[in-house]
Amino acid sequence: ESAVYTSAAFNSCCQVLGVTQSMGAVGTSADNAMAESFNATMKREVLRDRKVFANPLQCRQEVFRWCIRYNTRRRHSWCGQIPPDVFESRSTTLNKAA
Fold this sequence. Notes:
By secondary structure, the chain is mainly α. It has helices spanning 2-5, 8-17, 33-47, 56-72, 84-90. It has a domain at 32-98. The protein is built from five helices and no strands.
């Protein structure tokens, strides 16, 4: 809960311990909501019910495979339930990446 980290009690505890607090504003590059959402989706869809992978290479390969699918074929609600690649190809305002 974010309110815990902005409370006076938590602030006092940080001061006693000599810890400098840092918190970004919503909508800034320091806002982690997008990254947290991406990571949660990846964990849910890649890990499913698995607890471990056979080896680190298999884990990296599955995460890479998922990232490719996430950006090229997976439908996203923010762009009308179409894959981001399709959305970008239809856009008249987005420039194609070189």
